[in-house]
Amino acid sequence: MRIQRHQPAQKHHRSGVSATEFIVVLPVLVALLAGTSDYARFSSTSMAISTAARSAAGYGCLNQFDDYTLNLFMESCRSRVEAELEALPGFQADQIQMTVEYVGAPPEDRIDVSVTYPFKTIINWGIVNRTTQVTRRCSLPMIR
User: Fold this and answer.
1) Side by side, which strands form the sheet with 97-103?
2) How is the chain split among helix, strand and coil, in percent rounded to 5?
3) Does the pTM of the predicted model rise above 0.70?
4) Of 2, 53, 90, 129, which one's alpha carbon is 20 to 30 angstroms from that of 73?
C-alpha cells in the first residue's frame, strides 16, 4: 500500500496587503498619539497654573498688606506665580495675567487669585482653537 502525499497549495503573497493596511492605519495612529500628547500637555499646564494660583493665594493669605506695601505684595505674588510656571516648555513671563483681590471684611475676609496663561496645541485640529487661555482661580481665607 502506498500513501500519496498531496502538494500544499501555493501560498498567496500578502506583502502588498500588509503595506496597504499599514498605510491606512498609520494616520489614525499618528492622530491618536498627537491627541494624547496634546491632552497630556494641556493637563500638565492646567495643573501648573492651578498650583501657581494656589501658591500666590497662600502667600497672600499669610501676609498682611496696606496701601503702602501693596506694590511689594503684588510683586511677591507675581514672583511666586512665575516660579511655579517657569518649568513649562516655552514659558514666557510676559504672557501671565494675574489678578489678586481682597474680598470681604474680617473675620471672613479672603484673598482671591486668578492666573491666566495661554496654551498652544501641537497640531491645528480645526475643531478647537489652536491657542486657548487657561484660567485657574484660588480663594483662601486670610490668616491673622
Assistant:
1) 97-103, 110-120, 131-141
2) 45, 20, 35
3) yes
4) 90
